[in-house]
Q: What sequence folds into this?
C-alpha cells in the first residue's frame, strides 16, 4: 500500500517528511530549522518590517512548521497552535450564533466539552451522530447546518466514516467538512484529497511522536477562509511556541518509520488480544471483518497504531491499569511508548453517560496506543497482567 504515498507532482511523502518545506536554512546552510526563541523582532524603520513582528502573530520556526504540515497533508495553508483544542477553538470562529454542526458522537471527550459546555452558550447547536452511518448523517442535517465535524477512525471505538460521502452531503448545502485526522496522521490518510475542507490534528500525538510537547494544527486550501482563520489564531493567542514547533519539526522527520512500526505492532497485539480468553472484543480497523474495513482501505494507506478492546470482567480493569509495567497507564496517544487509557474516566469523562454508552464506551473498555517497542514485549506485559487476573 505504501507506494501510494508517492506524489505525481513531486517527491514521495517519505521524502517530504524528512526534508520538510525548507530542506536547509539558506543563510547558514543549517539542515535543521533554527529555534527563533524571540518574542519580538526589530523593525528596520517606520512602516517597515522584516515580515516578522511579534511571535504571537508570526515566528520563523512556527512558520516553517506550518508550511511543512500543510505540505505533507496536501493543503495550501497550515496553522500551528499550542494544542489540538486551541486549533478547534479557533476553527469554530468560522461560524456564528445560530449555526448548527453535526459531530461524530464517538470522539475525544475534550471536543465534546468544548462544543457543548462552552460554544453552546453562544448560540451554536450540535447534533452528535454515529457518522460511520451515512444515513444517520443525512438525517441529522438541517437548513442551518454549516459543517460536519468527523473523527475517523473514531476515538475510541475505531469506527470509520466515509470522508468522500460526508463531503458530498455537506457540500450540497454549502457547508464545510472538518476531519480530525489525528489517529492516522498525514502518512496514512489525507482527508483534503478526499473532499474535506479542513483537517485538524492534535500534533501532540503522532506528528510530534515522542510524548514531549503539545501542539495542534489546522490545514486547508481555501483562500476564502485563510485570513479569517489566521486572524482567529493570532487574536486568541493560542499559538505554538518556537521550541515546541522545533520539537514537532524534528518528530515529523521520522513519522514514516514510526507509523509503519506502530501499525505493524498494533496488528500483532490486536490479533493476540483477540484470542485471549479475558478479552471480549477488539476494535481495530485492520481486521478484515471490521464493519468498515473496505472503506478504510479505500481512503487510507493503513490502519494505524490504535486499538480498543472490551475486557470480559470489569474487575480486571483495575488490575490491568495497576500492574502493566512496560505499557504505561497514561492519557494521550501516538508517542513511541505504549500507553493504555481508561476512556470512561479519562479521555471521555466529560461525555454524558447515555451518550458514552450509545457510542460503546462502557466500564470495560480499554484504549491502547501501541508504541514502537518490540511487539513481543508489549504482548508479554499484557500476558503477565492477564495471568494475575485469573
A:
Amino acid at each position: 500500500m505504501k507506494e501510494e504515498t508517492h506524489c505525481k507532482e513531486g517527491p514521495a511523502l517519505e521524502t517530504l517528511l524528512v526534508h520538510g518545506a525548507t530542506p536547509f536554512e539558506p543563510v547558514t546552510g543549517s539542515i535543521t530549522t533554527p529555534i527563533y526563541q524571540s518574542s519580538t523582532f526589530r523593525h528596520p524603520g517606520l512602516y517597515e518590517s522584516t515580515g516578522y513582528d511579534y511571535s504571537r502573530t508570526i515566528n520563523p520556526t512556527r512558520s516553517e512548521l506550518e508550511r511543512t504540515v500543510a505540505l505533507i497533508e496536501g493543503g495550501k495553508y497550515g496553522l500551528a497552535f499550542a494544542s489540538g483544542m486551541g486549533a478547534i477553538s479557533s476553527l469554530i470562529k468560522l461560524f456564528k450564533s445560530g449555526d448548527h454542526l453535526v459531530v461524530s458522537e464517538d470522539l475525544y471527550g475534550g471536543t465534546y466539552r468544548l462544543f457543548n459546555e462552552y460554544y453552546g452558550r453562544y448560540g451554536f447547536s450540535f447534533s452528535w451522530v454515529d457518522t460511520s452511518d451515512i444515513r444517520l448523517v443525512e438525517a441529522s442535517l438541517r437548513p442551518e447546518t454549516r459543517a460536519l465535524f468527523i473523527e475517523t477512525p473514531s476515538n475510541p471505538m475505531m469506527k470509520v466514516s466515509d470522508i468522500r460521502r460526508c463531503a458530498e452531503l455537506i457540500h450540497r448545502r454549502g457547508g464545510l467538512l472538518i476531519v480530525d485526522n489525528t489517529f492516522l496522521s498525514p502518512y496514512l490518510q489525507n482527508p483534503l484529497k478526499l473532499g474535506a475542507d479542513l483537517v485538524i490534528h492534535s500534533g501532540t500525538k503522532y506528528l510530534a511522536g515522542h510524548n514531549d510537547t503539545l501542539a495542534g494544527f489546522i490545514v486547508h486550501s481555501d483562500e476564502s477562509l485563510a485570513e479569517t482563520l489566521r486572524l482567529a489564531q493570532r487574536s486568541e493567542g493560542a499559538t505554538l511556541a518556537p521550541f515546541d514547533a522545533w520539537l514537532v519539526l524534528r518528530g515529523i522527520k521520522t513519522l514514516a518509520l514510526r507509523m509503519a512500526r506502530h501499525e505493524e505492532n498494533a496488528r500483532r497485539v490486536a490479533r493476540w488480544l483477540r484470542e485471549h480468553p479475558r478479552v471480549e472484543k477488539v476494535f481495530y480497523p485492520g481486521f478484515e471483518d471490521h464493519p468498515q474495513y473496505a472503506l478504510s482501505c479505500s481512503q487510507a494507506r493503513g490502519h494505524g497504531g490504535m486499538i480498543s478492546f472490551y475486557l470480559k470482567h470489569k474487575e480486571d480493569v483495575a488490575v490491568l491499569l495497576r500492574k502493566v509495567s512496560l505499557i504505561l497507564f497514561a492519557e494521550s496517544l501516538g508517542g513511541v511508548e505504549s500507553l493504555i487509557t481508561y476512556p470512561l474516566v479519562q479521555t471521555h469523562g466529560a461525555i454524558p453517560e447515555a451518550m458514552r454508552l450509545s457510542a460503546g464506551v462502557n466500564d470495560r473498555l480499554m484504549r491502547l496506543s501501541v508504541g514502537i517497542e518490540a511487539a513481543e514485549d508489549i504482548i508479554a506485559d499484557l500476558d503477565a497482567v492477564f495471568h494475575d487476573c485469573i
Q: What stands out?
A: The mean pLDDT is 95. DSSP finds 14 helices and twelve strands in the chain.
